[in-house]
């Protein structure tokens, strides 16, 4: 077996796992292929958060087998952990390797003979996890994503992730320090991520918290900007928000999953906060960081969600200073309590509620972007020529090209489709 190709599906954590797999396979002497059809081994590193994610994987398996029938297909990741028998039955799939055995993939594909094609074990017995810096999934090669936490101890009634990722576990502080120190030599901005990032350091016996880790990274590395990915609302402590507000080296960007602003539906979801708790954290963030990006994940169509519940959710969102939303339509996940609920919301109703919230999100985002016109923002220039990403998570069209991977100051002169535009430089009078 000579060449391999790793294709990732889903979240930043999966992207980080895929980068680590590429490193392990390369260390075994395999060569990365530029294109999927050139590979002898195709590794599909999967997501299973929705039914659509599962279908995307199955479609890709069929396409790979059709385009490159000689390739050996290995399916790993969250879908593999959840439903290995379903995947091994697909034509062309030779191995199914769950997250529990993901670290063994390089040995499995380079050793002979093979003893069984399904390798899935107890994910809750896992104490370590794969992690390697990965370039942004959208192809941005200037903002590496570093996974420093995996797993989740929550049991939200709609979510399968704890059962395919295992318990919450954290990368060691010294390991994170060395990785950030190394990345900071090449990159200006580093994104810290995890399945439940705010739980970093919460293992028994640990006294460090995420804010403590950030302080150490700022003190002991030369990183110019750290950005946090998604953090659960109640993990945005006053200490963490205060540090974010006070340090120019931490991006002013708060992403706190909401799911719903309906108190009754939050309880049915088994979320650990009430709308008033969530609002307190968001308003505190806005008070400390008036220009910050504030985003949320929101779900519509959860079983039992009435029109009154949805309207409560809509009004709650309308009243908070969000700058963007990720709106999801509920999707039944086998094995979760919500999937067995006897009061499903009709799919057309789910789609209509999704549309309403997307329109609300678009209006809030437009108002936020309009408020940035005339201001000067700090931004990192991206690999995509003529573009940058601001500290507060706005795509900026640059008036003049700059070298990628630099922190620059840009004065905002107007709006772009979904972003903002740098003001043209003032003419020099002679």
Shape: globular
Mean pLDDT: 91
Structural class of the helix and strand makeup? alpha/beta
End-to-end gap: 67 Å
How would you sum up this structure, described in words?
With 430 residues, the protein is an alpha/beta fold. 34% of the residues lie in helices and 21% in strands. It contains 13 helices and 18 strands. It has helices spanning 12-27, 51-67, 78-82, 84-88, 105-110, 161-165, 173-184, 210-220, 238-246, 263-269, 275-288, 307-318, 347-372, and strands at 3-8, 31-32, 41-46, 72-77, 93-98, 118-119, 145-150, 169-170, 189-194, 225-228, 253-255, 293-300, 324-329, 376-381, 387-390, 395-397, 407-416, 419-422. It has a six-stranded parallel beta sheet with strand order 2-1-3-4-5-6, sandwiched between helices. The protein has a five-stranded mixed beta barrel with strand order 14-15-16-18-17. The protein has a four-stranded mixed beta sheet with strand order 8-7-9-10, sandwiched between helices. The radius of gyration is 22 Å and the shape is globular. Residues 135-140 have low confidence and may be disordered.
In short:
It is built from 13 helices and 18 strands. It has 430 residues and is an alpha/beta fold.
